[in-house]
Amino acid sequence: MSNLPYLRIGTAVIVNDEGLILIDKRRNKGTMANKWEFPGGKFEDGENAQECIVREIKEELGIDIRVGKHLMNVRHDYPHVSLTLMVYYAHILSGEPKTLECAEIRWVKPEQLSDFDFPDANYQIIEKIQAQKTLNNCYSPNT
To answer: pLDDT class for 31, splitting at 50, 70, 90?
Structure first.
């Protein structure tokens, strides 16, 4: 068992109607500065993954989203923290993404994700996205 602090992170793979994925670049300060990431953040008390993702995306990017299908969970230990990324597809309901808590935003094709410098835990997500044949209907809620 690790003595590192443990975090649960709600993570969104936001896909638009053209099949592009939204990524954002962390600011140039703090842990993992200037790394690209899938938007999201830490759970607050009492939140489930979907609630966390909706709240974090509103705070970070100023948009309203619909959380769709669960993609995967990624457990990863960094030297300073242990975490689980709970990753869901999402789709924008309203608004245009803004850089409220990040340095830059880009819409990229799934095959372009490998061209960006992500934190280590994100590479499993990239591999899974790139292995899928299509992103059609990936943001439709499970029924």
So the answer is: confident
Give which of 52, 49, 51, 26 is closest to 37, Cα–Cα: 26
Within a domain: residue 21?
A: yes
Range of the domain at 14: 6-131
When divided into structural domains, the chain yields a total of 1
Q: Is 82 exposed, middle or buried (0-12, 13-18, 19+ CB in 10 A)?
A: middle
The number of residues making up the chain comes to 143
- The yes-or-no verdict on residue 53 having pLDDT over 50 is yes
Q: Which H or E element spans position 135?
A: none
* Averaged pLDDT for residues 110-136: 91
pLDDT value of residue 2: 62
The model's pTM = 0.92
Helix (H) / strand (E) element for 36: namely strand 36-37
